[in-house]
Design a protein that fits this description.
Blueprint: H1 2-14, H2 28-34, E1 37-41, E2 44-45, E3 49-52, E4 57-59, H3 61-74, E5 80-84, H4 90-95, E6 101-102, E7 116-118, E8 123-132, E9 147-151, H5 156-167, E10 172-176, H6 179-187, E11 193-197, H7 198-201, E12 209-211, E13 216-221, E14 224-226, H8 230-245, H9 248-255
Parallel strand pairs: 1-5, 1-6, 9-10, 9-11
Antiparallel strand pairs: 2-3, 3-4, 7-14, 8-11, 8-12, 8-13
This protein binds glutamic acid.
């Protein structure tokens, strides 16, 4: 039985079908064989990964990077399948093989590098704060006693805690599974501040709210792959470095006004 399983898993590997424990060697070649690159992207981050509700198409720098990688792997930039992810779902989706890589404002941290491969950073953002215009909160110094809404599995909580400690103010937290929930909590007064990367706040600012000028904790975004897919990680990293050096990524940064 074990032998049969091993044979099946070997066959699955050849056709890039995942699901066999320990046999997740996705490579550029196996993606080419599969005929499609599966990428986890954001659907609510303007300029990075945004699902345009009018066209039903994804757009942004991270979407274009995914298409460029698909072109390198399959010869066709349309051979890419996008899966919308959140800070909470992107890791599990990668772990279970539903997607080949994550290009979704995923901050590279020392901790996360123990679980995933990250490419060289393609963009650096920083954490910011969104508040109601009439809240009387203008900077970190005004956060004393305030409740900060943050997303589960995001870097934001540690980042704003460190910034508040430095500013000498005491804060508390409410954690949410998604950004729309934090925005709703901000609107209804259950939290005083919505804190996450500035790029992400850009998708939620409206007439009643404002993004404060304070920025802290630089966030380097990298393309993440499964830890044991070393070849894939190396191939992707080579491409990101090529596009950093030849101006492709700088071109996208200016195209999307980032
Ligand atoms: N970029 C931050 C992180 O990776 C914020 C969360 C997010 O990307 O949604 O934790």
């Amino acid at each position: 039985m074990r032998k049969l399983l091993a044979v099946l898993c070997a066959a699955a590997m050849l056709t890039a079908v995942s699901g066999c424990a320990g046999s997740s060697s996705v490579t550029a070649a196996s993606i080419k064989n599969a005929g499609v690159l599966k990428v986890g992207v954001k659907e609510d981050v303007p300029g990075f990964g945004l699902l345009n509700k009018d066209t039903n198409q994804y757009e942004g720098l991270e979407i274009e990077l995914a298409k460029l990688i698909a072109k390198e792997f399959t010869g066709d930039d349309t051979k890419v399948e996008f899966t919308p992810v959140t800070a909470k779902t992107r890791g599990p989706l990668l772990d279970n093989g539903d997607i080949n890589m994550v290009i979704a404002t995923f901050t590279i941290t020392e901790d996360r590098k123990l679980t995933y491969n990250f490419s060289t950073p393609y963009y650096q953002d920083a954490v910011g704060m969104l508040v109601k215009k009439d809240a009387g909160i203008n900077s970190l110094a005004d956060l004393g006693g305030k409740t900060i809404g943050v997303a589960q599995s995001a870097t934001s909580k540690d980042a704003i805690q460190a910034a508040a400690d430095e500013a000498g103010v005491s804060i508390s937290f409410s954690e949410f599974a998604s950004y729309p929930e934090i925005k709703a909590a901000l609107d209804s007064g259950r939290v005083d501040v919505f804190s996450v990367d500035g790029s992400i706040l850009g998708g939620y600012v409206d007439d009643t709210s404002v993004i404060l000028p304070d920025r802290f904790s630089p966030q380097d975004y990298g393309v993440a792959t499964k830890l044991d897919n070393k070849d894939l990680a190396q191939t992707v990293d080579d491409l990101i470095n090529k596009w950093l050096n030849d101006g492709t990524i700088a071109g996208l940064v200016s195209k999307y006004n980032l």
